[in-house]
Fold this protein.
Amino acid sequence: MTSEQDRWSRVKGRLRSSVGEDVYTSWFARMDLEGMQDESVRLSVPTRFLKSWIQAHYAERVLSCWQAEAPEVHRIDLTVRTAVRPTVALKEMPAPIEAKRMDGRPSAELRATAPVSANHDALGGSPLDPRLTFASFVVGRANTLAHAAARQVAEGRRGDPVMFNPLYIHAGVGLGKTHLLQAVTWAGNSGSERKVLYLTAEKFMYGFVAALKTQTALAFKEALRGIDVLVIDDLQFLQGKSTQAEFCHTLNALIDAGRQVVIAADRPPSDLESLDDRVRSRLAGGLVVEMGSLGEDLRLGILKSRVAAARTHHASFDVPEEVLNYLARTITHNGRDLEGAINRLLAHSKLNNQPVTLEMAEREVRDLVRPQEPKRIKIEDIQRVVARQYNVSRSDLLSSRRTANVVRPRQVAMYLAKTLTLRSLPEIGRRFGGRDHTTVLHAVRKIEALVSKDAALSEEVESLKRQLQE
């Protein structure tokens, strides 16, 4: 099995190089190797949507990457796995690991647990992972606000006024969005007072389409609107005009009725270009919280939490402090990589009956240590920072106003968008209130000319670049 996993690690490396980091994290980060047999390889993904998309668009690419490592492979079998382990009773599971803040003090977490079947009501919610509770969530500077908002939602009672609606959490892959959403669901379902339903966007689409086919769409809508807390994960995958329209109607109906909606996606509402403007506007009207990248202290806290969880089943498993520090310093992309690193060390230690050492860790996790990528700057970030610098609003930058106090900041923002992002001139123009690309080109040339002879403006522009790249 170890040799199979080594091959799989090399295949993933080839796949990442072949399709690029963004495509890889969007479609392949959650693909796992289930096993190899004769000429076939069994892989799994968590949702039917991912399976369908990969089969339709990347089947040959995955096969060719495998054949580069194992020429005998001629077939890829892709299946959908479930996150719930139905054969394990909750009473057989270890007690939840107590969440720790970065200062070492215990976090006052919700300790309630729920039966594994809590989410399986008539609507058929998406599977829940019993490990993803508030008790196992590690709190740090990057996720403090998102964690506090999620807990506030989870602790609410039926009839309480809803403070943030919808609560919209966005972050990159593996930074804890799904963990928080499932924690809200587990906590909400621990009592019978409120109905909490967790759905992935793919599950919502599947449920709506199935209801249309069976002519039960009205019952589907009524059941959804009877939920006290609706939790939707991976909203960026919501596709189809009719499905989006139904989601918008459901969202409006729940919010207007004072029901709580919690949503997670990999980008802010303004970047969900596939969604209708009405949906994006309603999402932006709630509390939008970004979970930032994991700092080294938070990564170290997550590693210690995962080691403690592993010890509940393997009491002799030990990871020296120098190894934990090395992993926290070098594995910087996301929490799943950190968990994968601990799993590898555990497997190597147990299967080979060897203690964990720094040399062994460096060898086993080398493919998880990726070069640090420059920060990806978004046009929305540029608009926000420039608006703050010049004391105007973002809507001013997008408006048709041509007063001097707005024109110069707008030109500076367009210049930064052209120099700091890969967006085309027409795309930048569209993001600045639907302007023509020639307007953007004029702004870029204007600022370029001024920066070369105006020292004060040059310093302002450099200061804005530093703020955006921090």
